[in-house]
Specification:
20 strands, alpha+beta, 7 helices, single chain, flat, ten-stranded mixed beta sheet, four-stranded antiparallel beta sheet
Length: about 425
Amino acid sequence: MNIRRAAAGLAIVMLTGMALAITPFAYADTYSPADDIVLPKPVTTLPTFNGIGLRPDRRLVSSVPGEVRTTEDVTVAVAGDGQPVTVMLDERLRLSGTGNYLIYERGPAREARPLGDSIPPVLKLGTVIWQGFSPGSRDLAARLRLDPTLEAERLPLRVSLSFQPTGGGKAQPLRPGGETPGAGTVVLHLENTTGQPQNLATGLATTDDIVGPLDTLLTTARRALAQPAQALVLPVAGRGLPTRIPAAGVTQTLGFVIAPLRVSGTITAPGTTASLNGPTTTLIDGGGRVQGVLSSTVDFRLDVPAAARVAVDLTVTPTLDERTLRPPSGSNWVAWAQTNPTEEHRRAATSQLVNAAASAARAASISPYVGADTPGAATTTFHYRLADAAEVATAPRKLEPKPFALALVGVVALALVGGGSALWRRL
């Protein structure tokens, strides 16, 4: 059972193709005619929940002498039905400042090995611990092996695979190693699982206060569009965006926020004449290439002429959706402001800024994926591929949920809806 999923299940919302869906199904207080809109911020600390029986190692807080720049690459190998069978994470931490550091990453990791000549981390009850002294800067790097059963409920992208034989018959998973038994159609279903309920403010701000932040978000989204496989540090409140926007008639709305995911890569059956169909696809030898922004779900269909071995190679990065950040007119928001927009248009632009800031904050909350509570920017890139036969054969059995975990999920879910907090990793 998963905290993030339980919380999201409290608000039943149907997503469309938008990168951010805000559903005004509940209202809170209305504030004074002149007030500030507080822009949503990413989660930078993990909840401790003292006093409810958690292990001491789950209540520890990291201590570092300065900011930490985190870069992560998560590789997910999936079985023939799309379930993860291995999840490996390569992380690189660049510490700044002089002094002692003690970093707790609440994995849980099953194995941690240093990369290169890095100081090795310590693995204690699944928690990855970095400890030492930084003489002004320090580079740390490790490869973590995570539990695929647990991570299946936490990864931002869920993958499902099936094979439909030509001429009919029951759909079935691919065989180990991605093999198909004959001619037919391989269906790859992708689902963005980052959505969560959150309180969002809305109101009427001046063009001078909103065009700068909106253009910052739009420029970043266009950079991401030009570099689809590269994870970017997204502007968020307090880092690239203001924390508050002066506005009139501020109200609070309970909405549903997702992090757009840019998906790029290939789906092929090498050495065959297979063809790929679906949104944003481009045909290549043996299949096709995909590149687009995923906000809800999408299906791709690979038609194979005979028995074949399917290969999936997808890169997924949390991003901003340029389509939701375009101004109603002009190439940027400064040009739009020069058209003397009406109050209605300024109100809509204010909501557009809040929604985009919430989306950026949600995307930023996914990094770092393993859950360290250190200050500083982080980027995470996810790679999905089909597992080979040996990986499938050694995959761990599925774990059963425990009664205490189910009760804890309910407590945290209520706290999430009430306070709008974003919880990603386990406690």
